[in-house]
Amino acid sequence: MPHSLDGYHALITREELDAAHVGAMLRLRKQLFVDHCGWLLSTTGDVERDQFDCWYTEHCLLFSGVELVGGFRAIRTDYPYLTKSVFPQLAMRRFPSRRDAWEISRFGVLPGVARSRTARVNYALMFRFAELRGAAALVALADLSYERFLTRMDIRTRRYGPPQVIGNDRMGRPLTALAGEIPLGLADNPGLTKFLDLGRQLEIHDASHVLGRSSIPA
């Protein structure tokens, strides 16, 4: 884990509150997932977005200095979300649909010399976001490298079903993914402590939090 967060800061917002920053995040997603990773996603010009970039979606942006270097989007699972809606075959049981479980998607950081360090800070931001929203679990569609990384970081995950091929990239290579969750109770997942400690040190401007409560309607 990095010992210093010098230069890193974060923004949590929604498109209706800050279209400019969310637009920057959508451009970063196109650069990262389409141009760099080769995923076959819908794009318009230099922007990647889908039907889940909507009024209830929260966008979490990670900066190093003035540069946007990573982030993710978060959707409460009592609203429609990507994993449940598009990949129902990945679960052998019901996907969650409740206020205290959030889906994380489009999670990533730009490649570069500090990528490993930045990725850890992005995970710290993710767990800090969950803490700020009172989440009991984080749901995600992920490839096996993310699961292995979390295991190395002593973070326990729970699969909803076995990994499956969900498509191909633009080079024709198969994309294997699984659906699952990270339970957030420290009694069950003590490895979260180091990420939460780091996330609490991160300067975060939470634009979509009003008077200590999420401004997303109940």
3D structure, described in words:
It is a single chain. Strands 1, 4, 5, 6, 7, 8, 9, 10 and 11 form a nine-stranded mixed sheet that branches. The chain has a two-stranded antiparallel ribbon with strand order 2-3. A two-stranded antiparallel sheet has the order 12-13. The protein has helices at residues 19-36, 82-86, 115-132, 144-152, 192-201; strands at residues 8-13, 43-44, 47-48, 58-64, 67-76, 101-109, 137-142, 158-159, 164-168, 174-183, 203-206, 209-210, 213-214. Helix 3 packs across helix 5 (192-201). It is built from five helices and 13 strands. A hairpin with a 2-residue loop joins strand 4 and strand 5 (67-76). The model is unreliable at 211-218 (pLDDT under 50). Helices cover 28% and strands 31% of the residues. The N and C termini lie far apart (36 Å). It is α+β, with helices and mostly antiparallel strands. The longest helix has 18 residues, at 19-36. It comes from Bradyrhizobium quebecense. Pfam families: Autoind_synth. This is GNAT family N-acetyltransferase. Keywords: Autoinducer synthesis, Quorum sensing, S-adenosyl-L-methionine, Transferase.
- Beta-strand residue percentage: 25-35%
Q: Which stretches are poorly predicted, pLDDT < 50 over at least 5 residues?
A: 211-218
Question: What is the distance, rounded to the nearest whole angstrom, between the alpha carbons of the first and last residues?
Answer: 36 Å
Rg computed from alpha carbons, rounded to a whole number of angstroms: 16 Å
Structural class estimated from helices and strands: alpha+beta
Number of helices: 5
The oligomerization state is: single chain
Give the fraction of residues assigned to helices. Answer: 25-40%
Shape: globular
| Strand elements, count | 13
List the secondary-structure elements in sequence, H or E.
Answer: EHEEEEHEHEHEEEHEEE
Mean pLDDT: 91
Q: Biggest sheet, open or closed, and with what strands and sense?
A: 9 strands, mixed
